[in-house]
Amino acid sequence: MTYESEYPPVYVTVDVVLLTVRDDALQVLLVERGAREQRGSLALPGGFVRQEEDLPDAARRELREETGVDVEPAHLEQVATFGAPYRDSRGRVVSVAYLAALPALPVPVAGTDAAAARWEPVSAALDEPLAFDHHAILEAGVDRARSKLEYTALATTFVGPTFTVAELRHVYEVVWGRSLDPGNFHRKVLGSEGFVRRTAEQRSSGRGRPAATYEHGGATLLHPPILRRAAP
Amino acid sequence: MTYESEYPPVYVTVDVVLLTVRDDALQVLLVERGAREQRGSLALPGGFVRQEEDLPDAARRELREETGVDVEPAHLEQVATFGAPYRDSRGRVVSVAYLAALPALPVPVAGTDAAAARWEPVSAALDEPLAFDHHAILEAGVDRARSKLEYTALATTFVGPTFTVAELRHVYEVVWGRSLDPGNFHRKVLGSEGFVRRTAEQRSSGRGRPAATYEHGGATLLHPPILRRAAP
DNA sequence: CTAATAGTGTCTGTCAGACAATATACC
DNA sequence: GGTATATTGTCTGACAGACACTATTAG
């Protein structure tokens, strides 16, 4: 069937910047577009919002359909909306961008809408052409992630359910692109109320003294925050 | 003419949270809806995005058409997008919310789309029913303004082209809802690089020593920021 | 003069960062 | 033991806030 409208139609899509930390790099999940428009080019996963579907639901569904990744229990937040008139050659398409973060565990599986899905370092993704204005969307998502590490517990969604302070520090170092003093970081994380909660186990990386493990302590906003300073 | 589409139509609107400081209160510009939908109820100014119009352009245009206020030289930033499926009874309407700030100078003039436009204290506006989900949009806009005072020069858009430190402090006090130490605030503002630039004039409020006047110093991000602390 | 506001100086507690010291594992 | 990492301790500089003090106007 077709629908009629007295105004020219405006389409609403969602695009997802799904980040993870793997191989000592901040990586983003990209899909090779299988749909007719810009077929073959790399793009962020995303697609059209359905008529009775909430925006974050659409983001989760498109991510699942296009990449096989289920972001259900993890972080998903709106970043910004991109709506320049000619950003999409199919017509007027306004896209709501979402940021998601996952541990490095899941391996993407190409779904129906996309010929392929794969992780790629953010630095590389920003150096190659992406479909539509996805370069700007990716930048906005990464910027948001970098600043949210400072004052929210976002970093815990980059690691598994339990983690060591060093693993958490590695997330900060990779996302911010600078090294941090292990001692000071340790004290700041444990001093930020509700950031992490101690678990019973220990964990050894094979070298050195084994570390205590922690789980997310329930706080979403950090007091005090883990501040980022200008690189030395 | 009518347009046909293979999908049910989704409408995109913009809504503007225009804030100002007047009568020692943070106030928001509201319109009494003249359009058929929710006629007579109070709402944020806003409306449908045109086919070839960028989103911030639509925000400025709707503000001008509905209230006679021209926000051209002032601050206008995107806040968030609201798209719950049944937030608007006319159908699927996704709204991109914008935040704007102006000095208390302009008096609103009702335009064609709205029966009336008026300033109202934010505290009062949040206590009465607003059309659609504009209560949540207003809250998001005010939250954004409060946090942006900390690390951007947003406060300068609430005052005239030249201002005293006390006028700037008044903006912070009203928007944050707490009093600030005049001496410490003075030192922090002048110590934040590029926040304000001294002008030649002085200004007297009638009582006490006349104050030096300043203009915006060009910086958008403040180093160091003007931090907000928990109320004493 | 007094009242009022503008602007400066000083002290103190907090905290980030540098870096040293200790703890505990593996080889 | 030696090495590597975890964790804790110590010092120092920067800075926010409290508050005292000086400066400059009106009346």
Give the arrangement of secondary structure elements.
Two copies of one chain form a homodimer.
Chain A: E1 3-5, E2 11-22, E3 25-33, E4 42-43, E5 46-48, H1 55-67, E6 75-82, E7 93-101, E8 114-121, H2 122-125, H3 134-151, E9 163-164, H4 165-176, H5 182-191, E10 196-203, E11 211-216
Parallel strand pairs in A: 2-7
Antiparallel strand pairs in A: 2-3, 2-5, 3-4, 3-8, 6-7, 9-11, 10-11
The first copy, chain A, binds a DNA duplex (27 and 27 nucleotides) through helix 5.
Could you explain how this protein is built, in words?
Chains A, B: Keywords: Hydrolase. Chains A, B: Residues 9-142 form the Nudix hydrolase domain. Chains A, B: GO terms for molecular function: hydrolase activity. The structure is a homodimer of 232-residue chains. Chain A has helices at residues 55-67, 122-125, 134-151, 165-176, 182-191; strands at residues 3-5, 11-22, 25-33, 42-43, 46-48, 75-82, 93-101, 114-121, 163-164, 196-203, 211-216. With 232 residues, chain A is of the alpha+beta class. The first copy, chain A, has two domains: 11-148, Nucleoside Triphosphate Pyrophosphohydrolase, CATH 3.90.79.10; 152-216, Arc Repressor Mutant, subunit A, CATH 1.10.10.10. In chain A, the strands form two sheets. In chain A, strands 2, 3, 4, 5, 6, 7 and 8 form a seven-stranded mixed beta sheet that branches. A three-stranded antiparallel beta sheet of chain A has the order 9-11-10. In chain A, a hairpin with an 8-residue loop joins strand 3 (25-33) and strand 4. The longest helix of chain A has 18 residues, at 134-151. The A-B interface holds A 2-12, 48-49, 51-55, 78, 80-81, 83-85, 92, 94, 96 and B 2-12, 48-49, 51-55, 78, 80-81, 83-85, 92, 94, 96. The structure holds a DNA duplex (27 and 27 nucleotides).
